[in-house]
Design goal:
This protein is α+β, with helices and mostly antiparallel strands and about 100 residues long. Helices cover about 60% and strands about 15% of the residues.
């Protein structure tokens, strides 16, 4: 059985700005204005990144008057962490058993 990591989610989180946004949202729910202030990104650029994060299931939105608040979905990060943990466990078992494929 091969264990792999969700590559789509990895691509989403590989962008430095999106990773910064996710890190900020891990600590508090923020609106677009807060995220612009914290990241220094232009509002249109930030909105595009938030759309990607939302479509990937990493964040949820909450309208509040004329603002939109974003909250991190911990289950998305937990799922990714679980996939990495499974890879680490497989690597540990391989190393402990000294498994290697023979060369032809």
């Amino acid at each position: 059985m091969l264990t792999s990591v969700d590559t789509d989610l990895m691509r989403v989180l590989a962008d430095p700005l999106r990773l910064r946004i996710v890190t900020l949202l891990a600590h508090e729910t923020l609106c677009t204005t807060h995220l612009v202030e914290e990241t220094g990104a232009k509002q249109t650029n930030l909105s595009n990144h938030m759309r990607v994060l939302r479509e990937a299931g990493v964040v949820d939105t909450e309208p509040c008057g004329r603002f939109t608040y974003y909250r991190l979905r911990p289950e998305a990060i937990e799922a990714l962490a679980g996939q990495f943990a499974a890879l680490a466990q497989a690597a540990r078992a391989t190393a402990d058993a000294n498994l290697k494929r023979s060369c032809p």
